[in-house]
Task: inverse folding
């Protein structure tokens, strides 16, 4: 399949099941909202070393948030419920509780709940106050600035991690420009995040390494500087490969994001781009297979 | 007709205990059986049909018509469904209620919503003493649910209250939140004396008041954003709560300081 001169490889992105929590953060100003959201989703690019993958999903209008202030929804992904609970608690405790004027609420409703305010409330040292209205419970934790308001529990759901596309081209600058445009477009889709810096990964990995202690190492098949000595997947003219990793709450939205990203590259940012591919491990890593050509039909 | 309509036939001389007539108690019962249910009239047990004409079905709930100010325990231990009363009611309305909704198009007497644990009670006129309180001899008052009174309330609103919301649109008398343990009382009108006496925890929200009681300590002004959160939850329950907290930067008093209480009284204006 070729779209506007770009080859869409006959391959698939291989993704795996994760657990996801959606938090709604609110604050008095957009500045502090961004600070808190960036902080809680910081150092959360890959479960390989960060414990979780996280990103900003979208901004939420004040009319749609529990406290009537502007909000941001963030998604946090981990491999299991216990790992996610630990990460959510640490990150909310260190990044949201600490940020001036913020409050934190659950952004999804499922039957599987983890403690949020119910654990962080102990910071209040006995001065914390709970408020319960029907099935909703919030905690008011006194802090030096006033009060930190947080929902008692947050729901977690099944999610998907590791959707991806690879952008292969003949120029570093052009590949980066295309990837940036794709990220901008993909971020318009709800229920997904692109957890890497600016949504883009330059160091895509393969499973395993020649070094025993490493579970992942550089994906040498896509390293242009190793073309002469490895079993490369690049042509002679290819100078750069960038990857966009997508985590989402469902397959449909990951597919939608992949499609929108590839579309914008093929339609508007195709200069110097030769191939769109995807990373997989032969189907051994995860049950979710996003076939590029099927998506782009 | 989708309500089971019970119309009071005559003026009552003695008090009636209507605790048996809840939607969950009479579900799937034929009208003939409902008519023959025994209720306490003074000290005697008599059939319901002696006092009420009964028609319709229970699809939407129970609808009482007439002046029921001598009828007590309406909605007693109700679990779900709906009761509507077009007229006044007696004591213990929604006593130990666990769910469902009661609407009174009139006034209720004492102990309305006593030991309520869930569900909603709406009284369009006034209510008596001990609204949302504990019943005599019990340690805990209302422990959940919502009570809305569009008129005035009597003494000891939320006595020993443990959780839930009480909203009074007009005035309330003395000893509001007395021995309160938790929960929220919102009063839009004037209040009597001894507010929050022996209060341990919980929140009383008042519209515009000057407080000078010795058992309350002034805590200054701050931004209480939780009010907006409560408002958004309450707005979903009832339109009465729309924009009840326009301002969150408000005064706070703590008390009862004589019993190391952490109860709070918030003054909206």
Result:
């Amino acid at each position: 399949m070729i779209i506007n001169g770009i080859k869409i490889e006959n391959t698939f992105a291989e993704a795996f099941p994760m657990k996801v929590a959606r938090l709604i953060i609110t604050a008095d100003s957009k500045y502090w909202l961004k600070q808190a959201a960036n902080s809680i989703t910081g150092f959360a690019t890959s479960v390989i070393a960060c414990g979780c993958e996280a990103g900003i999903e979208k901004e939420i209008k004040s009319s749609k948030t529990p406290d009537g202030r502007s909000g941001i929804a963030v998604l946090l992904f981990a491999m299991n419920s216990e790992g996610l609970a630990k990460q959510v608690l640490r990150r909310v405790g260190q990044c949201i509780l600490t940020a001036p004027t913020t409050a934190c609420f659950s952004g999804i409703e499922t039957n599987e709940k983890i403690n949020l305010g119910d654990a962080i409330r102990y910071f209040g040292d006995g001065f914390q106050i709970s408020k319960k209205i029907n099935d909703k419970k919030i905690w008011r934790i006194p802090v030096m600035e006033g009060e930190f308001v947080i929902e008692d529990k947050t729901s977690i759901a099944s999610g998907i991690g590791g959707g991806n596309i690879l952008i292969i081209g003949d120029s570093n600058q052009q590949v980066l420009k295309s990837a940036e445009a794709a990220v901008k477009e993909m971020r318009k889709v709800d229920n997904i995040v692109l957890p890497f810096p600016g949504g883009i990964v330059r160091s895509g990995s393969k499973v395993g390494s020649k070094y025993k202690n490493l579970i992942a190492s550089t994906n040498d098949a896509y390293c242009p500087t190793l073309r002469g000595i490895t079993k490369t997947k690049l042509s002679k003219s290819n100078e750069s490969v960038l990857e966009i990793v997508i985590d989402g709450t469902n397959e449909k939205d990951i597919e939608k994001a992949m499609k929108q990203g590839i579309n914008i590259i093929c339609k508007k940012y195709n200069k110097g781009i030769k191939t769109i591919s995807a990373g997989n491990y032969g189907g051994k890593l995860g049950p979710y297979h996003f076939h590029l050509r099927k998506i782009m039909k | 007709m989708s309500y089971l309509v019970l119309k009071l036939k005559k003026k009552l001389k003695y008090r009636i205990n209507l605790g048996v007539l809840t939607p969950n108690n009479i579900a799937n019962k034929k009208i003939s059986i409902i008519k023959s249910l025994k209720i306490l009239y003074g000290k005697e047990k008599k059939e319901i049909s002696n006092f009420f004409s009964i028609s319709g079905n229970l699809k939407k709930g129970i609808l009482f018509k007439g002046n029921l100010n001598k009828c007590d325990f309406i909605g007693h231990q109700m679990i779900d469904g709906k009761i509507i009363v077009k007229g006044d009611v007696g004591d213990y309305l929604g006593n130990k209620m666990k769910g469902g909704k009661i609407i009174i198009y009139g006034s209720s007497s004492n102990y309305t919503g006593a030991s309520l644990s869930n569900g909603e009670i709406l009284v369009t006129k006034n209510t008596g003493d001990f609204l949302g309180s504990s019943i005599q001899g019990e340690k805990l008052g209302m422990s959940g649910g919502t009570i809305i009174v569009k008129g005035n309330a009597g003494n000891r609103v939320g006595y020993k209250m443990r959780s839930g919301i009480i909203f009074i649109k007009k005035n309330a008398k003395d000893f509001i939140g007395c021995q309160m343990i938790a929960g929220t009382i919102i009063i839009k009108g004037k209040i009597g004396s001894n507010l929050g006496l022996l209060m341990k925890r919980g929140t009383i929200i008042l519209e515009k008041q000057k407080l000078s009681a010795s058992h309350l300590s002034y805590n200054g002004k701050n931004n209480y954003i939780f009010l907006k959160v409560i408002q958004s939850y309450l707005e979903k329950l009832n339109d009465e709560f729309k924009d009840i907290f326009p301002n969150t930067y408000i005064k706070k008093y703590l008390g009862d300081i004589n019993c190391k209480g952490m109860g709070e009284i918030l003054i909206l204006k």
About this structure: Chain B has a mean pLDDT of 94.
